[in-house]
Structure formats: structure tokens, C-alpha cells
């Protein structure tokens, strides 16, 4: 689950830094019946503000009123939603860095108290599409080292319908037999 907004990767035109942070603020500009809206991001090095396009010359009547309300209220939850929208990222040519902006919630440690020989089925749910290595999640969640997790995969004791190497950003399940 996210713990804060991710870092936005984009080149700063003032200082050439490549890291920005959203502060949950928006700018909305209405010109006659046409509307533009941006989510504001600040350069982490020089503080310069950049605008990421959310709406471009949209007819006011075609914009959902609750979306406009949330932008006028500077809803930080909306900034998070928009940054996770692939269309917004593509349009603004930005990428996200989620390092330090998420945590794993295992719902306690009861699952660690099991006998050798037991098999456990675990489902992993993503509260946001954060690309992470499943090996890292499983190691942290099951109290194992990453090397142990890799070994269990190789030995067929850790199985999943998805590829556990590389990164994932969506829900998956796995079975661990020990
Ligand atoms: Zn800058």
C-alpha cells in the first residue's frame, strides 16, 4: 500500500534535476466553455513548479462535476489517482519512482507460526499499481532472505501462476511448502 505520493521523474527546466513531488495541488483554468486542468509538481532540488496536464481544452459540460470539485479542493487522493493513470503519465511523458513510498502490510505475524511441512496459500493485493519484485515481498512477508526465496522457487517449494522473477504491479497468489 502507498504511504505517500510517488516521486515523479521528469527533467526540471530550471536546474536539470529529474525528481519532482506532487503536493496535492491543482490548477484549473476555464476559458469560455473550455477547461484546462493540471496537477502541480515541485522540483525536489530547486522547488520550481511544473504542471502536468490532466484536462486539455475540455468542454466544461463534459467534465464530471465531482472531478472539478476534487481539483478545486486540492484533493491529495486525486493527485495519487491521476499519477497512477497510465494515460496521464504517457501524455506528460513522466515515470514514477515508488522507492520509499509504499509498505507491505502482512496483517500480523500469525502466518509465520506454522509447522515444517505445512503449505500455506498467500494472496497479495496491491492497493496501487506499484511495480515491486515479488521475491522481495515474499522475503519480507515470510521472514526469509531473498536468497532463501530464490532457492525455494528453484526447488519448486514456492509456486505461483505468475512469474515470480522480475517485477509485478498487480494482485497475485503463491503457495509456500516447507
Ligand atoms: Zn529544479
Describe this protein with a few key phrases:
3-stranded antiparallel β-sheet; 178 residues; alpha+beta; 2 domains; binds zinc ion; single chain; 5-stranded antiparallel β-sheet
Provide a descriptive summary of the structure in words.
Helices cover 22% and strands 30% of the residues. The chain has helices at residues 65-72, 76-83, 86-91, 134-142, 146-154; strands at 7-9, 19-31, 34-43, 49-59, 95-97, 119-124, 158-159, 172-177. The two termini are 28 Å apart. The mean pLDDT is 92. A five-stranded antiparallel sheet has the order 4-3-2-1-5. Strands 6-8-7 form a three-stranded antiparallel sheet. Helix 4 (134-142) crosses helix 5 (146-154). It has two domains: 7-97, no CATH class; 110-177, Structural Genomics Hypothetical 15.5 Kd Protein In mrcA-pckA Intergenic Region, Chain A (Roll). Strand 3 (34-43) and strand 4 form a beta hairpin. The protein is of the alpha+beta class. It contains five helices and eight strands; from the N terminus they run ββββαααββααββ. It is elongated and about 70 Å long. The structure holds zinc ion. The site of zinc ion has 8 residues, from loops.
Amino acid at each position: 500500500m502507498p504511504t505517500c505520493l510517488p516521486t515523479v521523474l521528469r527533467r526540471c527546466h530550471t536546474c536539470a534535476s529529474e525528481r519532482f513531488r506532487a503536493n496535492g495541488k491543482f490548477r484549473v483554468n476555464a476559458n469560455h466553455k473550455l477547461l484546462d486542468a493540471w496537477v502541480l509538481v515541485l522540483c525536489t532540488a530547486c522547488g520550481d513548479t511544473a504542471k502536468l496536464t490532466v484536462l486539455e481544452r475540455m468542454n466544461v459540460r463534459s467534465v464530471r462535476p465531482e472531478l472539478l470539485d476534487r481539483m478545486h479542493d486540492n484533493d491529495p487522493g486525486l493527485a495519487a489517482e491521476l499519477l497512477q493513470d497510465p494515460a496521464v503519465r504517457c501524455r506528460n511523458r513522466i515515470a514514477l519512482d515508488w522507492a520509499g513510498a509504499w509498505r507491505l502490510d502482512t496483517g500480523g505475524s500469525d502466518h509465520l507460526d506454522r509447522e515444517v511441512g505445512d503449505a500455506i496459500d498467500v494472496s497479495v493485493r496491491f492497493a496501487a499499481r506499484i511495480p515491486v519484485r515479488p521475491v522481495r515481498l515474499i522475503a519480507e512477508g515470510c521472514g526469509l532472505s531473498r536468497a532463501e526465496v530464490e532457492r525455494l522457487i528453484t526447488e519448486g517449494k514456492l509456486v505461483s501462476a505468475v512469474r515470480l522473477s522480475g517485477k509485478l504491479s498487480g494482485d497475485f497468489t503463491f503457495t509456500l511448502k516447507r
